[in-house]
Specification:
By secondary structure, the protein is of the alpha+beta class. The protein has 9 helices and 21 strands.
Amino acid sequence: MQSNFNLKEYNTLQVNCVSKLYTEIESIYWLLQLLETKEWQENTHWVLGWGANTLFTSDFFDWIVIKMSILWINILKETDENIIIQVWAWENWDNFVKYCVRNQLWGIENLISIPWCVWASAVWNIWAYWQEAWNCIKEIIWVNLETKTIQKIKKSECNFWYRDSIFKNELKGKFIITHIVFSLKKISTSYEFTTSYKDVEEYFYNHSIDFNNLPLDQKIGTISSVIAEIRDNKLPDYHKMWTAGSYFKNPEIPPSQREKLHIKFPELKAHTTKGGTMKLSAWQLIELCWWKWKAINKVKMYEKHALILVNEWSSWEAVVEYANTVKKSVQEKFWVCLVPEVIYAE
């Protein structure tokens, strides 16, 4: 247990923040032991993953920060068609996707090059290029912080939705996820790849790739490498630039509001969700408010993608002020409220 620990290197926005207490956990036994300590019982806690979706909004964080350092991928069951894999929640998500691609395991190949840990797939329901992580989740193993017991929860009980789950709502502050169990498909002619995303279709066309006629064993590698290249070309490298990735969620509005917006702004992109709402593109709303080209106090939106906030050596106050200014601008022009995807650690 360390006191007055600087978290600057532990969040991808690289804001300065000192935590009251900090500890790293390397086994479930250590975690259960921690729950019995005086430090745990006398302080509120914050579980830190890769820090890729977190903004500390104070100079001093009066909490105990816990970083889980357990990494492992374990095959539980295998059949001719499927494979059940248990993954430690703090394993690197991109490494796990690449593991699946190498082994011709289908279901999350479009979710490559996302700099989160596997934990995020359960809490945030990782979503990209028309693919969602929850479709491949079987169950989640977690420590109940109230009863101090290890429990399991089935996918059907997790209330997965766009960037949402039971862990962000009913169970908020009551859990630490330790493992996630995935059910993935093996190579099969019946599997339908998701290639209808506009950027992917344009890449195939521009590079003369006839995806449907590729040999079966080449398809998963092709689609994952194409998406990785697309992401690399339009998103900043968080190792070189300080960013939390997509800063806001894509807003969902009623069809009636979408019709009114379309009259005034016919260029707005939107598609119907499973719940019947219309999902707008947050990047387009921001770009149409001209924030893609404006910086304030060394905080800006990335020039290649207006949804990506970049921090160029500034404070957490400057990041929050910039995000709030962008949010207000969009609200005034389009009557749409942007909600941060980034978690504010206050």
